[in-house]
Amino acid sequence: MKIGVSSYSFRRYRGATGASLLDVCRKAKKIGFDAIEFITLDGEDHIAQARELRALCDELGLEISAYTVGANLMSENIDAVVENLLYCVDVTEALGAKIMRHDVCYSLPEGVSWETAVEQMAPHIRRVTEYAKSKGIRTCTENHGFIFQDSCRVKALIDTVGDDNYRWLVDLGNFLCTDESPLSAVRTAALYAIHVHAKDFIFRSASMLDPEGFIRTRGGNFIRGTVLGHGVVPLAECVKLLKDSGYDDTLSLEFEGLEDNLPALEMGYRTLQRLTAI
């Protein structure tokens, strides 16, 4: 497996220093990462910036593993959302990445079930992945955003789309947002995985006072991002399940904790080294 990192993981460092995405690439390489993925790029001309980032990463020997973008496919202005996703495929191509992750929705209209949302969104997802396929790019959705974080819901969405070009970005930590066991969820997700986020959380039960800096899970518990290996996600067991299923691509560190940013990423990188050696 390759050891990667998301540019999102550097957000505190960028906020404190004003570092550009080019600076982030250099930092990622210095720490030792094999690959980097980017969330939505800066500025207005994303294709021009993508080419600049690709040139630097080629020079550094840093693979660009994926491009990650938002989308609300339950929007009333669905044509504009889809057109933007098609443009994002072009940005992915300019980056030289072979995977694009897009969100599907962040909330549901009143009276609409997640099962109904699956049926409504599937044709739009299919249109995007068919366009991506023509460029040699695979698309995927992450268990992310509270509505589609449960493994059964993401599986249902992928199965309904019914195109092998559209698969799963498996985030090992996000299942906790819906109080689902990461290990149980990865058993479902592993065969669909084309990209993986390695993320960890500290957990506090609902019986505690609302702790500052934590988010509330669907079941009323509390979680907070932390240094990889410092939380409750059974990382080694999840990675073994992925390997046993045949996954042998990138483990991409996604850090969103309160700890000092760069030291946290360095510790996370060393944890990933141990995990990939299992």
* SSE pattern, N- to C-terminal: EHHEHEHEHEHEHEEEEHEH
Shape field: globular
Question: What name does CATH use for the topology?
Answer: TIM Barrel
C-alpha Rg (nearest Å)? 18 Å
In the residues, how many domains can be counted? 1
| Highest-level CATH class | Alpha Beta
Question: What percentage of residues falls in helices of 4 or more residues?
Answer: 40-55%
List the uncertain runs. Answer: none
Number of helices: 9
Second rung of CATH, namely the architecture: Alpha-Beta Barrel
In which order are the strands of the major sheet placed?
Answer: 1-2-3-4-5-6-7-11
How many strands, which pairing sense, and closed or not: the largest β-sheet? 8 strands, parallel, barrel
CATH superfamily: Divalent-metal-dependent TIM barrel enzymes
Mean pLDDT: 97
Query: Structural class, judged by helices and strands?
Result: alpha/beta
Strand content: 15-25%
- How many beta-strand segments? 11
Please describe what this structure looks like.
This protein is an alpha/beta fold and 278 residues long. It has one domain (2-276): TIM Barrel (Alpha-Beta Barrel), CATH 3.20.20.150. It is built from nine helices and eleven strands. Helix 5 (114-133) crosses helix 6 (151-161) and helix 7 packs parallel to helix 8 (235-244). The protein starts with a strand and ends with a helix. 46% of the residues are buried. The mean pLDDT is 97.
